[in-house]
Amino acid sequence: MNTKFGPSRKPGVKKIADKTGFSPATVSLVLNNKGTFTEETKHAIRQAYTELSHDLAVSEGKPFVRLLIEETIAVHNDSYNGEILRAIENECRLLGFEVMLNFVRAGDEPLSWLENISGLILLGGGLITDEIVQELRGYAVPMVLVDNYTHTGDGLSVHSDHYGAGYLATEYLIRNGHTHIGFISGPAKYKPLIDRYAGYCAALRENGLTLVTDYITPNFDRKYIKGYYEMKYLLELPRRPTAVFAVSDRSAFGALQALQDAGLTPGRDIELIGCDNISGDQEIKRRIPTVHIPRAEVGQMAARFLLEAMRGNELSGKVIIPGRLVLPETSEAAAGGAQDNAVTAASGGSESGQHFS
């Protein structure tokens, strides 16, 4: 799927050759990832491609930004990523440029994403790997990673404090007197979920509790019942945990269904906490705590930082926005302002109040 606003053209080989001094044949080979050339030659040609693409976008009206997200994510039915996408699009329009949405598929040619754009926003992980990010950086296009980052720290990334969210959720259960705490895991290809697991481990360690590997569920990865079979796995252990941290609210929803099917009551038989504070079954939201992930703020910040990069201000590093604990019957709107029901997670990152004008 490729949703576009406006025309889409790419600079011709001859124009790139004229700009760089290389032959059209060399330019064509480099852009098609063929032949053997020095890194300097490839960088010069790719840089010219990016600059000419940007010039085309500007000459034809508003600059365009391409937003990439993994194809397997059901954007329209995904409360988590859907809110980030809406925030990015709204902020981009306010800042004066349009957004083109592309779903990333296995085997895609990254060069095709650079046609007629002024910048890139890469949302989430999965198929958007460190290798793809590194290849795109070779074209020197302004770029921001959202809810993702590279292990080498290249470029600029904006995301919530997922490590802090995992720590906050687990510490909440510990404060409630639990020492046997299970963890419902998620796919390892998504760094936020791995970071939440790391926060879970850190909270156990810093409170003198032992990490029990049996309490870490396998990821059964059933698309529409995430968390259901993971909770059943925990319930079947010889010594089941007294509390469970589900890596996401979607997993918590499935886990709660498993508890109900087993005739157990959350909060009495087993305490359950989720993470994300997404919209969903309102009966569930009234019954279990979660950690609010500031998705709208992440999207807004990403758009504003990209604008700075497009203005020529090269930025790098991580911008991390902390989350908050949300207790049962606390609405998502209240999570942004009710201090009696919200505890700010510790974070070394930037607050969402830091904006560019």
From TrEMBL:
The keyword Transcription applies. One of its GO terms (molecular function) is transcription cis-regulatory region binding. It comes from Cohnella phaseoli. This is LacI family transcriptional regulator. Pfam families: LacI (PF00356), Peripla_BP_3 (PF13377). Keywords: DNA-binding, Transcription, Transcription regulation. Residues 341-357 have a biased composition (Polar residues). The keyword Transcription regulation applies. InterPro entries: HTH_LacI, LacI/GalR-like_sensor, Lambda_DNA-bd_dom_sf, Peripla_BP_I. Residues 336-357 are annotated as: Disordered. Residues 14-53 form the HTH lacI-type domain. Residues 171-326 form the Transcriptional regulator LacI/GalR-like sensor domain.
